[in-house]
Specification:
Layout (H helix, E strand, L loop, with lengths): L15 H22 L7 H6 L3 E2 L2 E2 H9 L10 E3 L11 E11 L17 E4 L2 E20 L2 H17 L1 H6 L2 E11 L11 E16 L4 E2 L15
Parallel strand pairs: 3-4
Antiparallel strand pairs: 1-2, 4-6, 5-6, 6-8, 6-9, 7-8
Length: 233
């Protein structure tokens, strides 16, 4: 698979929307490269997923190739956005949104002990800065839009399939207890033209958000024991 640079994050604060964006972006690139570079067409992911799937005169395998293997400068190449972007109009697009972000089950306090096996604090010259942690139960949505109903359908099922297929990568990236669901939506006419088709993948999960404490503390470097004055017999 294409390089998904989310497993070895150097930054402390995780931004789930960016991680999901990177994963989907890499998946879209891999789908195209896999089909182009396959020794035989039957070895490609799209062939294995959709070959033989037909409805009346529609051949969904051929439509999936046309949709996901478009050249970089194709005006209808599938786009990806970190929030809902009505300006893309009818061009096929995946919009990543955050409908809810609620507090999950947490320990008493602010999780200063840190996750098992992780660093507990930043250390500088003479000071320490504890790392705090809270768990959130979040829901992210992937809005798959297009002015072509068949394209919206193909994007929806392909993205959902690869969210399942990259579940191990997502879990290593910090998402846990992942659950997927979906629905067809009618976009408000104020936000998009009436001819735009939309299907939504709901991605429910739990994430641990870690952050340095705002204040740092001086290190304890010496301990002086005062034994006091002995009491005479």
């Amino acid at each position: 698979m294409a390089d998904i640079d989310v497993l070895d994050r150097k930054n402390l604060v995780m931004i789930p929307e960016i991680v999901l964006f990177n994963v989907i972006e890499a998946v879209l690139e891999e789908i195209s490269n896999d089909w182009k570079n396959a020794a035989q067409e039957s070895d490609s992911l799209l062939h294995q997923m959709y070959y033989g799937l037909k409805e009346d005169k529609r051949d969904y395998y051929k439509e999936s190739v046309d949709l996901f293997v478009r050249r970089q400068d194709h005006p209808r190449r599938v786009k990806l956005r970190q929030s809902y972007d009505a300006s893309v109009g009818g061009v096929p697009c995946i919009h990543i949104t955050t409908p809810s972000d609620d507090m999950g089950q947490n320990s008493i306090g602010v999780g200063e002990s840190g996750a098992e096996g992780s660093a507990l604090q930043f250390e500088a010259e003479g000071t320490i800065r504890p790392i705090l942690e809270r768990r959130f139960k979040s829901r992210y949505s992937f809005f798959c839009t297009s002015d072509n109903a068949s394209e919206a359908l193909m994007i929806y099922h392909t993205v959902r399939a690869f969210l399942i297929g990259t579940m191990d990568i997502l879990e290593f990236s910090g998402f846990s207890n992942i659950q997927l669901s979906g629905q067809e939506l009618k976009i408000n006419a104020e936000n998009a033209p009436s001819h735009i088709f939309c299907r939504a993948i709901n991605f429910t999960c739990e994430v641990d958000i870690r952050t340095p404490k705002f204040h740092s503390y001086k290190k304890i470097t010496d301990i002086v024991l005062n034994t006091g004055t002995p009491i005479a017999d």
